[in-house]
Amino acid sequence: MSLLSMTHKEFNRLAGERAVIWVDPARVPLHSGSKWPVYRKRMLRLRRYVPLAFANLARPALKAREPFFIPGDAFRPGQPVVDTPRYRKVADFISHRDTPTDSLWYRDLMRELETQGVAWHKKIAMRSEAEILDFLEGYVGGLMDSLRAHGFSSNESRYESSALICRDGSLTKTGSGNHRFNMCHALNVTPFPLRIVGAHRDWFTDNGGSDDSTLDALLARIQEVGAQHR
User: Fold this and answer.
1) What does the pLDDT look like over 71-106, one tens digit per residue?
2) In angstroms, how far is CA 217 from the centroid of its own chain?
3) How far apart are CA 210 and CA 4, in angstroms?
4) Which of 40, 58, 81, 230 is the most exposed place for a label (fewest CB within 10 A)?
């Protein structure tokens, strides 16, 4: 296997849990959105030339080709985590933990309920104010209280939070698992697990990495990045 042409999927399969690093969330300052940046760029380009329905047919093939090492022209710098809507909503709820009806999260869910007839959090449907309050006080508040008291437990959640390694060796949050990450960030809960799903190609090659490097050498460098963010 050519290391530099390894796909995102191949890396995940071969690396397994060795791609998970434990970090201080506050030392991951950026969020870059999609963990498929090359796929995203290709889809945007494809949509300029073919109808959306036809472009969507290409999704599986394009995702299968997503490289682990991301070229510079596809690597998005991201935005500060603290400026993202999810983080602001989580931080605001923490400040209103004892008065959830004053929180931004409550207002957003109530607005959705009033306009759509149902408010959603992932697959959780809320069809009344009582259900919204039960969600905020039980699910969200309970999770925050547990994280504050006991830290992150891998028994409660899989390692679904992912990150990319930037060219300078810093980390940018990406993909799923954002609520727990943001909660731990805002509550100063550490350590927190992040699964590395991609890296800027130049981070690897500018520091001596090549096609002749081994997967074990790459994984050792990933763990070094983790150690620098604890």
Assistant:
1) 999 998 789 999 999 999 999 999 999 999 999 999
2) 24
3) 7
4) 230
CA 56 to centroid of chain Cα atoms: 23
* Tokens 């999810």, located at residue: 86
Q: Please report, as a single letter, which amino acid is at residue 16.
A: G
Greatest extent of the chain over all pairs of C-alpha atoms, in Å: 59
Tens digits of residue pLDDT in 149-195? 999 876 655 667 999 999 999 999 998 889 899 999 999 999 999 99
Kindly state the tokens that stand for 39.
């796929």
**By percentage, how much of the chain surpasses pLDDT 90?**
73
Alpha helices in the chain (DSSP H): 8-15, 37-47, 52-57, 59-64, 85-95, 104-116, 129-134, 141-150, 178-187, 201-205, 215-228
Q: Answer whether 182's CB lies under 8 Å from 87's CB.
A: yes
Show Cβ contacts of residue 83 under 8 Å, excluding neighbours closer than 6 positions: none
Q: What is the dihedral of CA 104, 109, 115, 121, to 10 degrees?
A: 140
| Type of residue found at 132 | I
